[in-house]
Structure formats: C-alpha cells, structure tokens
Amino acid sequence: MIDISEQAMAEEALRKTNLKLSLLSSVTRHDILNQVTKMLLFKELLADTIAAGEPVDAKYVSAILESVETIERQLLFTRDYESIGMEKPTWQHIHSVVTKVSQYTELSAIHVSCDTGDLEIYADHLFEKVVFNLMENTLRHGFNASSVEISWVPDTDGGGMLTFADDGVGVPDKIKKRIFEKGFGSNTGYGLYLIREMLGLTGITIEETGTAGRGATFSLTIPPPGACRNSSSPK
Q: Which long-range contacts link 129-132 to residues 24+ away (Cβ below 8 Å)?
C-alpha cells in the first residue's frame, strides 16, 4: 500500500494556485485601469487649468501621484502573490523557521519564545514569509510590544492550533476580520491578506483571537489529517 495523502494535498494546492492566479490577473487589471482612469481625469483638469492661465491646483498633482503610488503597490503585490504556490508545499519545521526568522536584524527588538517541540506543518514554501510578517506586524502595530510567544496545542483529530501571541495593544474587536482583507491597513494593506492566502493553499486558516488591550494573538488552525506531524515520526 502507498500513502498518497501528501500527493493529494500537493495537487489540491496546485489547483487552488491556478484558480487564484487567474482571479489575480482579472482583479489586478481592473484595479490598475481604475487608477489610470483617475489619472487621466486629473490630467485633463490640470491641462485645462494650465491652458486657462490659472494657478496649478496642487490637489490635481497630488491625486495623480497618489494613483501612481497605488499602482506601484498593486504591482508589487502581484509579484509577491504570483510566487505563492509556484513550488510544491513542503514540511516546515516550526521551531527551525522561527529561529531563523528571529535572527533577522529587523526583528532584533523582539524577544521570541517558541514552544512547538518537533512540530512540522505542511505549508507553502513561503511559510518563512508568514512567520516574518506576523512578527513584523508586532513591531509595526503592537506599540511598545517586546515579545512574541509561539505555542502549539494538538487536538484529538490529528490537527491542532498554532498561535503567535504578542504583548502589544491588541486588535479592536470591530476590525478583527477586516485586517485580513486585501488593501486594509495603514501600510501596504496586503501583508495579512497574503498570509491568509499562503496558508489557505494547504487548508490552514488564520484568525485574530486576542483581547484588545492585552496583545494580539494570531491563531492558525492546522487541519487533520496529514497537515501536521512530529518530525521524529516515520516519514
């Protein structure tokens, strides 16, 4: 008998990737065309102002520059999104990934503790980026947050919950679900959206489960069967 569960998960991840890339193409084209239309409108208003010999209204120039910056963000997002699922998902040793990421200079201000033992999860090859972005999120939005605790609680079905909890200000209840929407946020607005998409390729879900004022907690639900294992288990 041959165990084909990993092959089946890889094929499902590929199917989802192809679907998302097709959707990405149409959505990105629509978004950029909207910005180009906006730029052309303000260009005409600017041209009319100049032709009439009137002082140039700074808000027209500002609107055009804003659209250019939006297009730049959308193109950068497209580049990152396209890389999701382009390689077969792999087994990720959580403690090793966390140790590697926590050594990045950008994250040196955070104390990281990881209590996951020999846990491995089956995830996109960019899982390291997921860990980095969750920690960076603490720096950007935690306001004086100084630590992140990563823990694992298995369930009886063979799956479990992997959590990233910090000691920052937390996330207000009214935006807990919105923070994973594309474009929401004060930076690029794509970080948590990309995280959700990367994890979703192998059936992993993520939600914010912390208490506002007591720190943010990102909980990753690892589904059974076959999406997590102990690295000491038979391969």
A: 129/194, 129/198, 130/195, 130/198, 130/199, 131/97, 131/98, 131/101, 131/164, 132/101, 132/104, 132/107
- Which amino acid is present at 40? L
Q: Which residues of the chain have pLDDT under 70?
A: 1-7, 9-10, 12-28, 30, 77-86, 185-190, 232-235
| Residue-level pLDDT at 1 | 47
The Cα–Cα gap between 175 and 191 comes to 15
Closest CA to 80 of 31, 28, 138, 137: 28
pLDDT of residue 115: 95
Candidates 209, 205, 201; CA nearest to 221 is: 205
The tens digit of pLDDT for each residue in 15-63 reads 666 666 655 565 567 678 888 888 899 999 988 888 888 888 888 888 8
| Cβ neighbours for 181, distance < 8 A, ≥ 6 positions apart | 193
Q: Residue 115 carries which side chain, given as an amino acid letter?
A: D
